């Protein structure tokens, strides 16, 4: 191959390379033509939000999150009616078929099986939990000590276990939700235990099935494409967090939040909530002890997943 042929292929490569880079920058830059058009025509702020919403049905919301019967909803129905349409779904009693539902309400069992396991938990002076808040710390202690913290009448700190698998043998008491495994690629499981906790409103980049086994959880949710109404990233919080209190919003401070379609889902013991990736949610737990397990999966919406990954890795 002569020098001219090599130069020709090199030029072809450069043209394709810069075309791809240019297109990518156009998609990712918030001030680009495509994102300006999306803001104008669809009321969205960013192309990522457009990819995880149905552009033909952006303003159509049901008043309540759908209730799904796990004995009736097949993987095909689940995919067609919920996953592909980006709709949350509450599976009533789905978690009752797993050993955790019967066993985890017994503290003696929890201590016997995993009391000596070393865990690390979030530590806060109040029950509001987010890793970036002032005073947030992580404490290492045994799981038995963690359970005893809930009984201290004048405790100086609140604790929340939310980082990893169920401790020790307790992981044998759960299984991955079969309906999720039939569609998505499994990523990880996280164990959530606390006492009257309340998270900061945020989004996650994975599909989630949250099953509750003791106490209850209330999810206050807003669809991804309503990002501008939740004031994402305001007041110095990370871009995937909102400073608005979904459970008790200050409309004088955050007037556009009135435009958000806020829905609340109550997850009772044995229930499981399917929450699509990038949904805004604030989670409040029962005043007493609550235990839940979140099973995470790679998102079905691959374009959004790829771009979210690129942003997280600072590629763009």
UniProtKB/TrEMBL annotation:
UniProt-listed InterPro entries: Cupin_8, JmjC_dom
Lineage start: Eukaryota, Sar, Alveolata, Ciliophora, Intramacronucleata
Protein's UniProt name: Gnat family protein
Key words, A-Z: Membrane, Transmembrane, Transmembrane helix
Gene name tied to this protein: Contig7744.g8252
Ranges that cross the membrane: 6-24
Annotated Gene3D superfamilies: Cupin
Domain JmjC: 166-310
Pfam families: Cupin_8
């Amino acid at each position: 191959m002569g020098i001219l042929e090599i130069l020709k292929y090199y030029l072809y490569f450069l043209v394709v390379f810069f075309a791809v880079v240019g297109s990518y920058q156009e998609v990712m830059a918030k001030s680009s033509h495509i994102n300006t058009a999306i803001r104008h025509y669809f009321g969205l702020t960013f192309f990522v939000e457009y990819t995880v919403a149905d552009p033909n049905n952006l303003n159509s919301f049901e008043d309540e999150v759908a209730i799904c019967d796990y004995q009736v909803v097949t993987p095909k129905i689940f995919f067609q009616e919920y996953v592909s349409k980006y709709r949350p779904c509450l599976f009533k009693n789905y978690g009752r078929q797993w050993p955790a539902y019967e066993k985890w309400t017994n503290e003696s069992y929890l201590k016997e099986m995993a009391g000596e396991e070393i865990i690390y938990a979030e530590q806060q002076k109040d029950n509001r939990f987010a890793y970036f808040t002032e005073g947030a710390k992580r404490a290492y202690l045994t799981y038995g000590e963690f359970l005893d913290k809930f009984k201290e009448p004048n405790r100086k700190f609140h604790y929340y276990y939310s980082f990893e698998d169920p401790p020790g043998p307790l992981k044998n008491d759960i299984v991955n939700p079969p309906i999720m495994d039939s569609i998505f690629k499994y990523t990880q499981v996280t164990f959530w235990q606390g006492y009257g906790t309340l998270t900061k409103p945020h989004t996650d980049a994975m599909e989630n099935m949250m099953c509750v086994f003791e106490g209850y959880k209330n999810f206050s949710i807003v669809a991804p494409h309503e990002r501008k109404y939740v004031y994402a990233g305001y007041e110095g919080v990370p871009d995937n967090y909102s400073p608005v209190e979904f459970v008790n919003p200050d409309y004088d401070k955050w007037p556009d939040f009135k435009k958000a379609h806020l829905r609340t889902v109550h997850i009772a013991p044995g229930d499981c909530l399917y929450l699509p990736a990038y949904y805004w949610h604030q989670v409040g737990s029962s005043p007493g002890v609550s235990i839940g397990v979140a099973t995470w999966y790679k998102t079905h919406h691959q374009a959004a997943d790829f771009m979210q990954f690129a942003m997280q890795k600072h590629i763009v």
